[in-house]
Specification:
This protein has 15 helices and six strands. It is mainly alpha-helical and about 400 residues long. It has three domains: about 90 residues, Orthogonal Bundle (Fumarase C, Chain B, domain 1), CATH 1.10.275.10; about 250 residues, Up-down Bundle (Fumarase C, Chain A, domain 2); about 30 residues, no CATH class. A hairpin with a 2-residue loop joins strand 1 and strand 2. The longest helix is centred in the first third of the chain and has 37 residues. It is elongated and about 95 Å long. The mean pLDDT is about 95.
Amino acid sequence: MSKLWEKGVSLDKAIESFTVGKDPELDLVLVPYDCKASKAHAKMLGLKGYLTGKEVDQLSSALDQIIQRYKEGDFSILVSQEDSQTAIEEYLVDTLGEVGKKIHMARSRNDQVLTALRLYYKDELSEIKSLATALTEGLDRFAEENKGVEFPGYTHMQKAMPSSIHMWACAYADSMKDDVKSLTMVLSLVDQSPLGSAAGYGVPIDIDQQMTAEAMGFSKVQENPIYCQLSRGKFELALLQTLSQVLLTINRLASDLIQFSMAEFGYFSLPEEFYTGSSIMPQKKNPDVLELLRGSYHILLGYETQVKTLTSNLISGYNRDIQLSKEPVMRSINLAKDCLGISAAVISGLSINKDKCLAAMTSELYATEKAYEMVKGGIPFREAYRKVAESLRKGD
């Protein structure tokens, strides 16, 4: 079968390879979502009278076959097919003949890929939200299990004031709870169906976008067809910015655990099976897992920058540059899921050394408390501050 856009002139093979890029590999994940959208589209075409009931049933059955073959690892996308949309349509034509050729009525590859991506984002964001919630619950449990255990609070990497394991763990739980709110917001943003916008300017026949949106589980239709194309990149950036907040929380959590599990501190420790070793130093127990969690934030920032720069300076309407945003977004989603799952395992296996926490609660941590005791006795705070500072200098 020729390409969906072909007009009788064969594409240069080097140009084909370059323009197709990694889409045959990346688009595999979109196959079930594209089929879901195609089933809704076929049903709508039937209700509008463009397809017969029999044709709708045939297309729906063939699309279910593709989904099943995908689940079994028996569906592939060839370079010559370029993307999931073409691979699916070729299968429909090969299986159903003329009926398969009717599926593309009233849509373009542009709104097809937008729709498949939105459905994919919805599923992935829901999973990430569940993983983030699980990590939050793990931190809350850790806080409750170690309630009453004090250890130093630090500013400028120096001992500052008394803190506690409960306060520390709840701080990261609170941070992740805010991240979950951001995930909810982005989920609502991408929960808009662009199907029917075609190549960005709609179609000149009567269709029912509300019906297809409801059939696919979208909460609303993205009405303006030009904005459908403008929003590609914009929605992805909102998604990546939220994922970067999730990984920033994990980055700071990992940084704390790296420092506080050092022998010089010894407040926390990981299970033995979480540590790696050295090829030369027999004594080493390395927190590689924490270092990679810390570093993953910066990797995601790189993906975010790729999408941010790719999607700027583009005129309205579809531009092929946007194809290059697919890989960094997918990599970011997978990275966030991995980091959230590993972080939850780390917190679940984390233990504290109460004796070391208690031994670290040295007298200087209570300097501010001493100043306020004087304030309660009527001494102005600034004078009390100086008195305590002078006492500390003298070693009293």
